[in-house]
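To assess whether ligand presence alters the predicted conformation, the chain was also submitted together with adenosine-5'-diphosphate. Input:
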Amino acid sequence: ATPTSIMVGTGKAAEMGVLFRKGDALQTLQEVEVVALDKTGTLTEGRPRLTDLSVGEAFDEFDVLKLAAAVEDHSEHPIARAIVDAAQSRQLHLPPVRDFEAVAGYGVRAAADGREVAVGADRFMERLGIDLRAHAVEAAKLAREGKTPFYVAVDDTVAAVMAVSDPIKPSSVATVRALHDLGLRVAMITGDNRKTAEAIARELGIEQVLAEVLPHEKAEAVARLQQDGHKVAFVGDGINDAPALAQSDVGLAIGSGTDIAIEAADVVLMSGDLNGITNAIALSKATLDNIK
Ligand code: ADP
Ligand code: MG
């Protein structure tokens, strides 16, 4: 492509709220065969709400929520915010915590009110040696509803099974359909539970799911999609997405996302609206067709 046509193309893109940080991305985009998207905050709003809370017989609902929120108050994770919000709306007073530890992709733990409290995914509980067998059916049911189930353990016993739900963005369904209409393959990459991810993928018509991907494995997941020379665009918003954005052939960051994601991206979608992805690809094809 000539420098002029690229300039015109990126100018048009800017009018549509799609910012090309690197000119050659316009060219690479039309060669893309697979579009992989992060789930939380990209396909979904990224603002999960606590929807389910089922406590064990030996525990009081408010006590468990209070302990979980006290620990999560020290975490930046979207699930953490959902729990703290739920505790605050019930006007619970959060006790101070000691020895806080966050394990990326797993969960958080600390001591609160003289008890050992852990909050996180099934793999976190397994790592702590906590038996989940009695709760597997319930967790699977929540996951099939597209919710993210997680556990609260108090002194090495499961005190509650909880779930959060994160609404799908209105623009996600139409974007996936438009990408398919352009003949592209669509994949989702997420750290979330496999069943949850599959339920959401089904709702969106996404055909490939890479779930339970640890934060440091996201770039590897993109590399796997690139096997056999496929050109892959990755769309993400979080700090964890930066390596995947860098690994992909074209990285697209959500403009409302973290600065670190934006820095690592070739293209920035100025609004949270995913239609920008389709616009960018269509524009890339149109610009290069004009040149031929
Ligand atoms: P993603 O951002 O793709 O949902 P993460 O890698 O951040 O994935 O987290 C993966 C899973 O680990 C979450 O779905 C959740 O079950 C668990 N997890 C991580 N951090 C926390 C936390 N602070 N509180 C509760 N669960 C957590
Ligand atoms: Mg995200």
